[in-house]
Write a structure and sequence with these properties.
This protein is an alpha/beta fold. The protein has helices at 7-17, 61-74, 90-93, 111-125, 173-176, 213-221, 258-261, 274-287, 299-309, 314-320, 334-349; strands at residues 23-33, 42-46, 51-53, 78-83, 100-108, 130-137, 147-151, 156-159, 182-187, 190-197, 202-206, 225-229, 246-248, 266-269, 292-295, 321-322. It has eleven helices and 16 strands. InterPro entries: MoCofactor_Util/Proc (IPR052698), XdhC_CoxI (IPR003777), XdhC_Rossmann_dom (IPR027051).
């Protein structure tokens, strides 16, 4: 995986190297106002002072490494705050652009943490959502180093501390049923942070031509897990798609791994063959819960693919199939098309509009020519 900042990548990195060095995990557990990273973001620091991951835009990481040194010395967790609103504070001296406050909990990782993170990583591999609980304010300082893991249903699974039991821990039902990724709660004299940890996005590409190469590479940089499917001997070669998680050589008529396909979050049809795209679209309609399906080519081609797929569910086609796939950003090269498609896919999966963050158009749209991906 090319991504170094996702929960999946960070935990994988730790589990591969945790036996060699001591480690501290820094997690954003509280936030007021604007910040570069949101609560739940993590960073790892080892006893050599090497770090992995980001909890800011690169401004605070050096100081966090220094703070981690104190945690290594005492083997006790520390809660620190960076207030970018204070004109004379440390964050202000760095010229941090965000005007908010973040609280970061630094925990000394023990064998108990390793067992919990191993369980969490296994759940991420299986595409399961989990929740982590941090206690960042407490009269019992030892409790700050304890981490709790919950299932997506809210069920308590385990703790990094061996003397904990499930009767003591309940994930707030209101939080589980919401779309929020983070929530803080006050409990007596303690402050608790709950973070939603989602599995990497599972993207399937149907068509392994050369134009799929930048799409796979960019998706891998985002931390997505990509499966490339193509039965044609000159396509989807493993030597070309080094960043794909899986490469499957199978014709749609022979495909039977429906359990794997059911876990797909998104799919892109790019075989450049009308019959193949229609066949795969039919399978996706029957077997997949993908929120985004991209289809290359102009609108007329989309109508032809949909007609050959024999899908009668027009509501499903309208809701899930995006063709021509991508956002109108210009460009004709495979890299530009990949950027366009992934941007649209990303916005759909994260329930965003895909519009300009400034709320206005910078450039006047060119209406003289038709733009589409093919």
């Amino acid at each position: 995986m090319l991504n170094n900042h996702s929960h999946y990548a960070l935990i994988e990195h730790y589990l591969q190297q945790q036996g060699e060095l001591a480690w501290v995990m820094a997690t954003i557990v509280n936030k007021v106002g604007s910040s570069y990273r949101s609560p739940g973001a993590m960073m790892l620091v080892n006893s050599l002072g090497q770090s992995q991951g980001l909890v800011s835009g690169g401004c605070l990481e050096a100081n966090i490494v220094l703070q981690a040194k104190k945690v290594f010395d005492t083997e006790q967790a520390r809660y620190i705050e960076y207030d970018m609103r204070e004109e004379e504070g440390y964050a202000a001296e760095l010229g941090v652009g965000c005007k908010g406050k973040i609280g970061i909990l630094l925990q000394y990782l023990t064998p108990g943490h390793t067992r919990l993170l191993t369980r969490l990583f296994q759940r991420l591999q299986q595409g399961q959502t989990s929740y982590l609980q941090h206690r960042f304010v407490s009269t019992e300082l030892d409790s700050l180093n304890t981490l709790h893991l919950y299932a997506d249903s809210g069920e308590w699974l385990m703790s990094s501390s061996l003397d904990q039991d499930s009767a003591q821990h309940i994930l707030p039902e209101k939080f589980v049923n919401s779309q929020n990724k983070h929530q803080t709660y006050q409990l007596a004299q303690s402050a608790l942070s709950y973070s939603k940890i989602s599995a990497p996005i599972n993207l399937w590409l149907f068509g392994g031509g050369s134009d799929a190469l930048p799409l796979v590479s960019m998706a891998a940089q985002l931390g997505w897990q990509v499966t490339v499917v193509d039965h044609r001997s000159s396509y989807a070669r493993a030597s070309h798609f080094k960043h794909a998680k899986h490469i499957v050589s199978v014709h749609p008529d022979d495909f039977c791994d429906f359990a794997a396909l059911e876990k797909a979050d998104a799919a892109i049809l790019m075989s450049h063959n009308l019959q193949l795209d229609a066949a795969w679209l039919s399978i996706l309609h029957q077997q997949s819960k993908a929120q985004y399906i991209g289809l290359l080519g102009p609108l007329e081609r989309r109508h032809n693919v949909e007609a050959q797929s024999n899908i009668r569910d027009q509501a499903w086609l309208s809701q899930h199939v995006n063709g021509p796939a991508g956002l109108d950003i210009g460009g004709e090269l495979p890299e530009s098309i990949a950027l366009s498609i992934l941007a649209q896919c990303h916005s759909v999966l994260h329930h965003r509009t895909g519009q300009s963050l400034s709320g206005r158009f910078i450039n006047k749209p060119n209406t003289d020519s038709e733009t589409f991906t093919e």
